[in-house]
Amino acid sequence: MSVPRHVFDQTVAALFAPVGPFLEGDDVSEIMINGHDEIYVERGGRLYLTGSEFASEHALMSALRNLSQFVGRELNPRHPILEARLPDGSRVEAIIPPAASSGPAVCIRRFRRKQLTLDRLVELGAMTRDTECLLRTALTRRDNVVVAGGSGSGKTSLLNALASLAPGDDRVVVIEDSQELQLGLPHVVQLEAQPADVRGRGEVTIRELLRATLRMRPDRIVIGEIRGGEALDLIQAMTSGHRGCLSTVHATLPFDTLSRLETMALMSDVAVPLNVLRGQIASAVDTIVQVARCSDGSRCVTHVTEVLGYDRESGYRISHLFERPLESRGRE
């Protein structure tokens, strides 16, 4: 028998009460729980140790077990990793002993109620007005855009801002591991991958959702993050007429982004000669937007790069339409 949603919401609110104040508003972007008695939060890109703590390790484990039961996933010494969401949509990643030897480790990525726009990112200094114009132009001409950067660099926020620029009459299909994007557009279909249940049944992967999406008449496809073999399916979709696709990739520099796409495409079950694959990637991806976290904790766009093609002798041909000076990036 399933637990009524309002009962779950109330129970989770009570069990996670020590972090409750940090789940209000949009000033905290991440909550990090290192054992029951050490809780950090991220504000403005910087980490702060709070005075909050759970009463005991048992109290923290009770909160995590309650959450795992509601989402139908095992959490025990044999299955020590939990991926879930809180009632407000915040994403939870937890690791418990024995895998976490110093006690349960939990990271809560906040669900931002008010999504950032390109105008707001300009105001925050994350990009220049000229850069904003470049990105708006790329979306208008239906470029296939990849947002690249490290963990916590602001990839998802920028992806959300870019995807929200799609025309109101476009049918946009969004595919994510865990729902974070809120586009505010009239015609959006949101799909979410599903892990297997405790019996190993019911798994739905990003790749399966992407393949199904291609038969659902999308005008634009938005994938929260490319992590594996689905890279090849997306590349082939881009080169077969699906324009205006957007996604994110973990990569440090624009050239690395193309190499990462290669690596992930090779993880698929389809054998493609490397030179052919590289030619497809160069044909598929039009624009790479590189983001990074600066030394002061802020996020910024460091490159807007155009992919011009691929040459067997010289490799990928790219051109930086915008490159942020090193001195203004801080230590990334």
Summarize this structure as a short list of keywords or feature phrases:
332 residues; Rossmann fold; 14 strands; alpha/beta; 25% strand; 6-stranded antiparallel sheet; 2 domains; 8-stranded mixed sheet; Beta-Lactamase
Outline of the structure:
With 332 residues, the chain is an alpha/beta fold. The protein folds into 2 domains: 5-109, 2-Layer Sandwich (Beta-Lactamase); 118-328, P-loop containing nucleotide triphosphate hydrolases (Rossmann fold, 3-Layer(aba) Sandwich), CATH 3.40.50. The protein is built from 9 helices and 14 strands.
CATH class of the largest domain: Alpha Beta
β-sheet strand percentage? 25-35%
Strand order of the largest sheet: 9-8-10-11-7-12-13-14
Q: How many discrete domains?
A: 2
Radius of gyration, in Å, reads: 21 Å
Could you report the average pLDDT, rounded to the nearest whole number?
A: 90
CATH superfamily of the largest domain: P-loop containing nucleotide triphosphate hydrolases
**CATH architectural designation of the largest domain:** 3-Layer(aba) Sandwich
Oligomer: single chain
Explained architecture:
- The protein has 332 residues and is α/β, with parallel strands linked by helices.
- The protein folds into two domains: 5-109, Beta-Lactamase, CATH 3.30.450; 118-328, P-loop containing nucleotide triphosphate hydrolases (Rossmann fold, 3-Layer(aba) Sandwich), CATH 3.40.50.
- The protein is 28% helix and 25% strand.
- The chain contains nine helices and 14 strands.
- The protein has an eight-stranded mixed beta sheet, with helices on both faces. Strands 3-2-1-6-5-4 form a six-stranded antiparallel beta sheet, with helices on one face.
